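User
Take a look at the entry that follows and flag anything odd:
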Amino acid sequence: MTCRAVIFDLFYTLLYDEGTGTREKAIEVVRAAGIAEEDWLRGWRLAGDDAAKGDPGTTLGRVRRALAAVGYDGKNELLADELTGLMFVRQIPQLYPDTRETLADLRDRGYRMGLVSNCFGNEAHWPAEFELDCCFDAMVLSCKVGMVKPEPGIYRLAAERLGVSPKECAFVDDVPSYVAGAMAAGMAGVRINRFESEEPYAEHEDPGVEPDLKIGALHELVEWLDGQSGA
């Protein structure tokens, strides 16, 4: 393999998020409005499927769609506003300790650098807030391009923006099906699992595809790339 570009996932690859407790407060609010917790969570997930593609592009839009999905009549706009505030700040992003060093190392070695993430509109600014955007030659965010992993188009778009072919890319992600999607698009697939357990991925269907490399930390990726032809 001649690898000219490395494309990273964002969540649980370069950063993780910690809960703030406002998600739980939102559940208390919907209960007080007469909405069952399980209905609200179901509506929120359903609205999230479209929100990841940028429709709706705001937290308020997702809240409204979630409430409509569970049959709420929508007359109380104050409820939607309150839930929007709570759900907007439900997560605190945190970088993994090896993220900055690894990205800088790979750039110094001459690799083209990409980011492909399934993310919502309120998360799209996170790379810039950590000043990671300058580390990438191309960033493809699902909420901006209307595609989500593992759709093949999102991987091909990243390669196109990087000016390389898919076969010249290594793609790093924690979700097995997303790695498999990149491999189906012609990329080398690297699965990172920082949890040392498969339990966090129980809800994801096993694609039955073996990645080219499995790692638990990013330094293993650098070592592997060094061993590849043309690195």
